[in-house]
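Project standup — Tuesday

K.O.: blocked on the structure for the chain from last sprint. Re-posting the sequence here as requested.
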Amino acid sequence: MELLLILLVVGGLIALVATRGRGRGTTAQNQLGDAEAEARRWYERLGGQVLNLTGSDEPSKQALADAAERYTAAGSQLEQASSAPQYRLVTDTALEGLYYVRAARTAMGMDPGPELPGSAERSRAGALDAEQSVDVEGRSVTGSPQPSAQNNHYYPGGMVGGRPVPAGWYSEPWWRPMLLGGVGVVGGMMVASALFSGFGAAAVGGDAMAGGVDPGMDPGMDPGMDPGFDGGGFDGGGLFGGW
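H.V.: unblocked you, prediction finished:
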């Protein structure tokens, strides 16, 4: 009788462990499936916008070109993704592309569509509230909350090289070398530092200047980083939904 009871207890423990193991496996599979579905939804939505919009002026054309680049990058990431974090990265990249789409639609006087979900980085960076200009090594770099023939390069806001870059329209895409690494990183860092000291809190809405960011902080950038798997920027709606 004692032997039978021992066997029953051992058998129950084995069954419990097996059940919990299957539960954890099911949870992980569900998370992976949800992350993949979310990534594909945003990727398809960005594709619908990129393929169906044509810029009418230089700012909108440039913003749509940047959106198309994000669409290509998200597609490459999607092909390589095999884990939930990688699928979430695809979602971030596609969302960044949709921020460029919103900027292009605004530049063309169109309804920008539903609000996209923000991020802690974009909230911290804030957005330009007024046109400003700084001089860096003999050249003038301007930024504005509104597009113009001069300020026709949009950035959706976020952290670049360890520094918050406010959302807005700029006279040149000085942040790109900092994102991709390679030639021009030092120049981009100099522009970033000049912008932080030159624009000031009065010209930036949000938490960019209130966050106590040190303009001289180490950017912590890896010049050899893979540009195909970088972060970028959530709302529902599916393909074409809400636009």
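K.O.: great, moving the ticket to review. The longest helix spans residues 2-52. The helical segments are 2-52, 58-80, 84-107, 120-125, 176-180, 185-199.
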